Amino acid sequence: FEVNVFGLLKASKAVFSLLRALEGTVVNQSPVAGYYRMRQPFLKSCSASQISVMAINNTLQVELAPFDVKVVTLSTGNVDT
């Protein structure tokens, strides 16, 4: 949670003014498993951080839209390796 959520919040705050000036695109990654693991036992911390990242991205989308900055969530799935 410290890295996934608080790290994202700190990084976003650090570059917020730069993003507004550049009108770029932010891409954050959050596994789609966060949606599906919410009812799985023993995965509550993992699911909570993934859902939090999605919520932060949704909020950033609204906050940065007036400055023509786009925020995209890259939701990856399972990959057999």
Automatic annotation (TrEMBL):
Coiled-coil annotated residue ranges, if any: none
Superkingdom of origin organism: Eukaryota
An annotated GO BP: steroid metabolic process
Listed Pfam families: adh_short
InterPro entries reported in the protein's UniProt record: NAD(P)-bd_dom_sf, SDR_fam
SUPFAM superfamilies, A to Z: NAD(P)-binding Rossmann-fold domains (SSF51735)
Protein name per UniProt: Uncharacterized protein
Species whose genome carries this gene: Dothistroma septosporum (strain NZE10 / CBS 128990) (Red band needle blight fungus)
